[in-house]
Amino acid sequence: MNPMPRRLPATALVAVLATALAACGSQPPLPDWQMNAHGAAERATAAYLAGNDRVAQQEWTRARAEVASTGRPELLARVELMRCAAQAASLDGGACPAFEPLRQDATPQERAYADYLSGGLMPAQLALLPLAQRSAAANVNAIGNITDPLSRLVAAGTAVQSGRATAQLLVLASDTAAAQGWRRPLLAWLLLRVRQARADGDEQLAAQLQRRLTIVQSAGVPQTQADPAQR
């Protein structure tokens, strides 16, 4: 039997987007759909970051089904934003197509978050972002001050998406993914660093990073993820 993925830290992302999926302490007992949806979304995120596509897809489907039972599109929008944020952390960001049919029923904060993930945040939307992401959107150097690893990778991924990433940020992001053992984002960030090293003519660094890539790939990360350089 495969071990259960470890619980993800209580990130600003989860705290903001999962508010309606978790209960208010003053209203026990929880409806089953809330517990089931929150647990499924958390397991899906953990599986995705680990590179386990099959489990991730099963759990996202389960989370969607639980939330869909309420008939509330704004809650379904939050689930899709959680999924798109995990993708952004793994440099698989950009448009969030499953969110778009739900946009008209989403809150301004959720629409701002979706635009942030796609690299299309407008200045007027900045104040609508969670605090950590707000600081990161305003100043790329603030990303290093984000203590939660998943939130840090989300911010780093959106910086790449919007063309604001620095060489130091790429190192920070790959080190963050490596420290957590998150194979999918680590593979993506190392690939991007290899590309940057070769563009800079630093073949020694590129070779060193390529050796790290080989180790990550040997761990069974799906090969469906494209090199960010090809997007």
Can you put this structure into words, describing what you see?
The protein has 231 residues and is mostly helical. It has a domain at 12-166. The chain has ten helices and no strands. Helix 4 (73-89) runs parallel beside helix 5. The relative contact order is 0.11.
Layout of helices and strands, plus pairs?
Blueprint (H helix, E strand, L loop, with lengths): L11 H6 L14 H19 L2 H16 L4 H17 L18 H10 L13 H8 L10 H13 L5 H14 L2 H17 L3 H16 L13
Task: Give the termini distance in whole angstroms.
Answer: 37 Å
Strand content: under 5%
User: Tell me about the biggest sheet?
Assistant: none
Unreliable residue stretches:
1-17, 19-25, 223-231
Total DSSP helices:
10
The backbone outline, from C-alpha atoms, is globular
SSE string, helices as H and strands as E: HHHHHHHHHH
Number of strands: 0
Tell me briefly what this model is.
By secondary structure, the protein is an all-alpha fold.
Tags for this model:
59% helix, globular, disordered C terminus, 231 residues, 0% strand, disordered N terminus, mainly alpha, 10 helices
